[in-house]
């Protein structure tokens, strides 16, 4: 027993010799992933799986001890602020949304009252009447901003993916062209083009299939100082009957500034839509698929990391001034002076993943959270596309926390009923699910790792994220919410962003708990009988092809 306990201690001490080196943790995580793949060729991992927590990233070294005087000194996740900016807010400014309709109506309402900025980042904008209604809201608000007695400087910035946004004759670009033509000084539309789709590959891969190489997948919608973080796109199903997750951060100027700057940064390394439906590169920027790939990725990395590091420095200075400045107002004096902002009881951490640009913050934080989840903790993890990376699978199977994983049944998969090869994608997910479930059973972990399938007649399922319940707690202390799906694409191919919300406020914890319950109550437990159903029979060719293509969907 002593020898077993010594292993983790030695590993932690070894990494502790190199403080402030999250890159090392990432490297060790990749080595773990590779070792795991080699070791699993015959799918016999039982004894070695116990090493997963040791070979995965450790908690990044805290540069200073927890501050007993600071509100955030009492929560155990403050190590995340060594990687990204930390935003302390009152829980009264955080609202969890429940439905696509609520999401759609809130967005329209927020656009109508925006005075300074509307920033929208999504994979694409659909072409139906509901999407047109959204565009009409933008047009009306822009017109009002010019006709007001005191005209405002309202700016609209929209970031979409180039390949998905250009699909078909009527597409996201054609939907937005009237806005660009009518308000050229106020509207910016940026179309991100992955640097990995270039040369002969770009010429040969047809439309739709070219989207498998890499996408702009961030979903962030902000209006003045209000922000919605979600996994939902700007398309009719996401406004009606496609279940996702959404959180509304109200009157959070620092967070709104951060996501404005992040979208601006990605926009600067993207193609700019012009009024004649052509695209141009920002002056002085390397072209994403015609220019040198290494130079482009280096410039993009510097542009995005400058946003992250600058915001992190600002928040550290704000923290120091608020809680450590000798001559500064105490909270009581601040309230007396007219600053009635409640003390923070909730902390927001933006987690960015852009592997093409060598930015792996979300991956490091997610792996660390899974590694550090102790015995008795409960992790509720959900994804519309169950295709976990090998590193995430090893951590789920090799750590001691309890897991309940919610995934889409084939009938609510977004590809269900699709034409052509895409129609086989739900069956491929069934195959991946069955392989994972078989491994859970072979390790005798059915009681600790449970799978559940979401089903709702006439709906599809797109929710992703996790809720972490600490040992002995009936309410979650942390949630991850945003665009990543925990799969290979999210980690390696696409541009992703989500936020970690850490809260000590019981009312907000209850909101998050109820959100989790709403989703899981519409699910059924997966058992061996699940895969005996006729609808779960996977054709041989799908089984053979899935290992070859699973990294592309």
From TrEMBL:
Predominant place of localization:
mitochondrion
Q: Which domain of life is it from?
A: Eukaryota
Compartments, record wording? Mitochondrion
Q: Does the record carry Lipid biosynthesis as a key word? A: yes
**CDD domains, per the entry:** PLDc_PGS1_euk_1, PLDc_PGS1_euk_2
Alphabetized GO MF terms: ATP binding; CDP-diacylglycerol-glycerol-3-phosphate 3-phosphatidyltransferase activity
Gene Ontology biological process: cardiolipin biosynthetic process
* Any one of the GO CC terms: mitochondrial inner membrane
Q: What are the record keywords, sorted? A: ATP-binding, Lipid biosynthesis, Lipid metabolism, Mitochondrion, Nucleotide-binding, Phospholipid biosynthesis, Phospholipid metabolism, Phosphoprotein, Repeat, Transferase, Transit peptide
Report the PROSITE patterns cross-referenced here.
Answer: PLD
Enumerate the spans annotated as PLD phosphodiesterase domain: 212-238
Catalytic EC class: transferase
Q: In which pathway does it act?
A: Lipid metabolism; Phospholipid metabolism; phosphatidylglycerol biosynthesis; phosphatidylglycerol from CDP-diacylglycerol: step 1/2
| Keyword Hydrolase recorded | no
| Catalysed reaction equations from the record | a CDP-1,2-diacyl-sn-glycerol + sn-glycerol 3-phosphate = a 1,2-diacyl-sn-glycero-3-phospho-(1'-sn-glycero-3'-phosphate) + CMP + H(+)
Quote the EC number.
2.7.8.5
What does the similarity note say?
A: Belongs to the CDP-alcohol phosphatidyltransferase class-II family.
Q: What does this protein do?
A: Functions in the biosynthesis of the anionic phospholipids phosphatidylglycerol and cardiolipin.
Protein name as it appears in the record: CDP-diacylglycerol--glycerol-3-phosphate 3-phosphatidyltransferase
| Organism the protein comes from | Hipposideros armiger (Great Himalayan leaf-nosed bat)
